[in-house]
Amino acid sequence: MRWAGWVAAIGLCACGGATHLPAVGGPGDSGSGSTAGDAGPSDAGPADAGDAGPADAGPSADCIGIVPSSTGTAFTFDVPYSSGLVCSAATSDGQGILAAEAHDAGTPPVASAFNWSVFGTNGAFRGSFPNGSSALVPQPVGFEGYSAGDVYLWGEYGGGGPFTPVEQGAVVSPAFGSGSISIGAAASGVSVHRIDANANDTGSGSAQVTFPFTPWAGAEDQSGAILAVLQSGGSAKGIWFDLARGTSSAAFDLGAASRGALARSLAGGGIAVRLDGHWAATVNPFETTPAPAPAWLSRDGTDFTLARGGKAYAVVQSGSNAVELVAIAGSSCGQLAFTGMSSVAVGADGTVVGATGANGCTKIFWRGALK
């Protein structure tokens, strides 16, 4: 990392001119819409700058304005259906509406076992959609996800909304900007759909393959090219699609993998690919020779999304209460740790959602903290 004195996962970086945020206390009243910790945030104030040792040269130019001086007010809510269940995923759409799921704590759940609840910007319960997707793609308004052969758009009050039919067992991932993409297996081979933010199918394509496969992940480059990631045997393979021209590449090797894959768009172009929890490669549109992943994706088990008005990546890790902010150029700008949280997630509007409690079903969120 660039700055002297930078310490991981202990709060906002104590160097480079960044300011410590007060530690977040317990959840306080867990009723919908109440603020977290009625006694207010810790009044210990920023750590003494002298404790950090000699001052360094300050943040790099691309980090200026990236780390917020305050995350704002925290609110808390409890996810319904929590008896005998655990709660993992949570996110927010572009207007700050939150969605959080609960599922059976026993055997690995099927997609239909996920029950999502929707909450307003102050944490007030709005509605739910049972039997929903295992993961949601937040949109400017609402959330898209797969359920029973369709990609649905669920709104802030839950219930069924517009949908697009896709292949059974398809995986749905964020498109570049808004909308989503679906990667599925059909009689014609690999099938891809580009779905807009209103659940309309705006383009589809397919590619024949000569090997058995399972759809694993997908991502859309800023150019519109779509990368489908497939599992075949003990390895991951990629296929590029250009839906506007109706063309696709030959399948190419991404690396050895047996447990799963993730693909995410990079702001400057290209797709980062995670295999078995490790960020293994970056692939540029229609190139079939993977390059190494960016240095800031060196930690296993992380995921990232754009934040701070598209000027930075917010990097989170499963089981961690910290969010690392990385400038688009790759400089690490600092880290926010949300004390008392078992995990955190960052939504489409920059809201940070933390989980606490024995089953993770108490959520504390900071609306628009990384907007």
What does this structure look like?
There is one protein chain. This protein is mostly beta strands and 371 residues long. The protein is built from no helices and 30 strands. Strands 1-2-30-29-28 form a 5-stranded antiparallel sheet, with no helix packed on it. Strands 3, 4, 5, 6 and 7 form a 5-stranded antiparallel sheet that branches. Strands 16, 17, 18, 19 and 20 form a 5-stranded antiparallel sheet that branches. It starts with 33 loop residues before the first strand and ends in a 5-residue tail after the last strand. Mean pLDDT is 84; it is low at 1-54.
Query: Structural class of the secondary elements?
Result: mainly beta
The level of helicity is under 10%
Strand order of the largest sheet: 1-2-30-29-28
Strand content: 35-45%
Order of helices and strands: EEEEEEEEEEEEEEEEEEEEEEEEEEEEEE
The Cα radius of gyration reads 21 Å
Q: Segments where pLDDT lies below 50 for 5+ residues?
A: 1-54
Shape: globular
Please provide the count of β strands: 30
Total helix count? 0
Mean pLDDT comes to 84
